[in-house]
C-alpha cells in the first residue's frame, strides 16, 4: 500500500516545522522515509529564508525539504506554477515509497500541492498595470466604486480596502472572464490527488501572539533586515515583496511587522477551521514530540 500524504497546516509561529521533524522521527522509527514539501507562497524564494521562516541548514540536515528556495527573488511566481512543481515532487516521492509531509500556512498553496486548481487565466500585463496605476493614483476606494458600477453584487461582497482582489477582479472583467465571487472560491476540496491526512494546528491566542512576537525578534536578531534590504537592492519581484514584513522591515518598522503577522495568523486560523476533514490539534503548551505521539501513536 503506497504511503499516505501527511499535510500540516497552521498559522505563522504555531510550530509546524517542529512538528514535521517530530513526525519524521516517528516515521523513521517505523522504517519509513519522510520528506517535507513546503506549501508556502513565499518560501519558494531564494534569499528570503529568514523572513519566510523557511527550513534552515540545520532543519534540512534533520529532514529533507523540497520546494524551498527554488525561485530567484527577482522572478514572479504563481500558485499555478507552484502546483505543477509540487505535484511532480509529491508524485515522485510516492513512487519511491517516500512519505511526503506537506507543510504550509498558505491556504491556496496547500490546496495547490494536494489537489487540482481551477484558476482563472492570466490577462494582458498592460491591463493589470493600468489598474495598478489607478490604484496608486486614486486608492482602493475608486476601484471599489468602479466595480460597484460594473457589478454591484460582486462589489458588495468585496472589501473596499482589498486592493489586490479589486485589481484582479477588474482586470478579469476587462479581459472578459468571470471573476471568482468572494466566499465562492473553493480553496479546499476533499478530492485530493492522493490519500491525504490533513492536520490543522491551533493555539491559544495569547500564546500564539507571544510566539509570533518572539519569532519576529529572533528574525531581527538573525539579520532579517539586511536580508530584506539585499532582496530589495537585487530587484525583488512584486510577488516576493508580498512576504509578511517585507515592506515594514524596509521602513524599519518592526512593531508593524509583528502586528501584521498577528492579523495574518488570525486569518489563517479562521480559514483552517472551515476545512472539511481537518484534524484540529491544540498545541498550546505542548511539545512537538507530544503532539507527534498523539498523531502517530
TrEMBL record:
Keyword terms: ATP-binding, Magnesium, Nucleotide-binding, Transferase, tRNA processing
Q: Which GO terms describe its molecular function?
A: ATP binding; tRNA dimethylallyltransferase activity
Site (Interaction with substrate tRNA) at: 106, 128
Statement: the UniProt record of this protein carries the keyword DNA damage? no
Residues binding substrate:
12-17
Q: Which SMART domains match?
A: AAA (SM00382)
Q: Which family does it belong to?
A: Belongs to the IPP transferase family.
* Protein name per the record: tRNA dimethylallyltransferase
Amino acid at each position: 500500500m503506497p504511503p499516505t500524504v501527511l499535510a500540516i497546516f497552521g498559522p505563522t509561529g504555531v510550530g509546524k516545522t517542529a512538528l514535521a521533524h517530530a513526525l519524521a522521527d516517528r516515521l523513521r522509527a517505523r522504517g519509513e522515509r519522510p520528506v517535507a514539501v513546503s506549501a508556502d507562497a513565499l518560501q519558494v524564494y531564494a534569499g528570503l529564508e529568514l523572513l519566510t521562516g523557511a527550513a534552515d541548514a540545520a532543519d534540512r540536515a534533520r529532514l529533507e525539504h523540497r520546494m524551498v528556495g527554488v525561485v530567484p527573488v527577482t522572478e514572479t511566481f504563481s500558485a499555478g506554477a507552484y502546483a505543477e512543481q509540487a505535484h511532480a515532487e509529491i508524485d515522485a516521492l510516492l513512487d519511491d515509497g517516500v512519505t511526503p509531509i506537506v507543510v504550509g500556512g498558505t491556504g491556496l498553496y496547500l490546496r495547490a500541492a494536494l489537489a487540482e486548481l481551477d484558476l482563472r487565466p492570466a490577462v494582458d500585463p498592460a491591463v493589470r498595470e493600468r489598474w495598478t496605476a489607478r490604484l496608486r493614483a486614486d486608492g482602493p476606494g475608486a476601484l471599489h466604486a468602479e466595480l460597484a458600477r460594473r457589478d454591484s453584487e460582486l462589489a458588495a461582497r468585496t472589501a473596499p480596502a482589498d486592493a489586490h482582489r479589486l485589481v484582479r477582479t477588474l482586470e478579469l472583467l476587462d479581459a472578459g472572464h468571470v471573476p471568482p465571487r468572494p466566499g465562492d472560491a473553493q480553496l479546499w476540496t476533499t478530492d485530493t490527488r492522493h490519500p491525504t491526512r490533513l492536520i490543522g494546528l491551533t493555539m491559544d491566542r495569547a500564546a500564539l501572539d507571544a510566539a509570533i512576537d518572539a519569532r519576529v525578534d529572533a528574525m531581527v536578531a538573525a539579520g532579517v533586515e539586511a536580508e530584506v534590504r539585499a532582496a530589495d537592492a537585487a530587484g525583488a519581484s512584486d510577488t516576493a515583496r508580498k512576504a509578511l514584513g517585507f515592506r515594514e522591515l524596509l521602513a524599519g518598522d518592526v512593531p508593524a511587522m509583528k502586528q501584521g503577522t498577528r492579523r495574518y495568523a488570525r486569518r489563517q486560523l479562521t480559514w483552517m477551521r472551515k476545512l472539511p476533514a481537518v484534524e484540529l490539534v491544540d498545541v498550546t503548551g505542548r511539545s512537538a514530540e507530544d503532539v507527534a505521539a498523539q498523531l502517530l501513536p
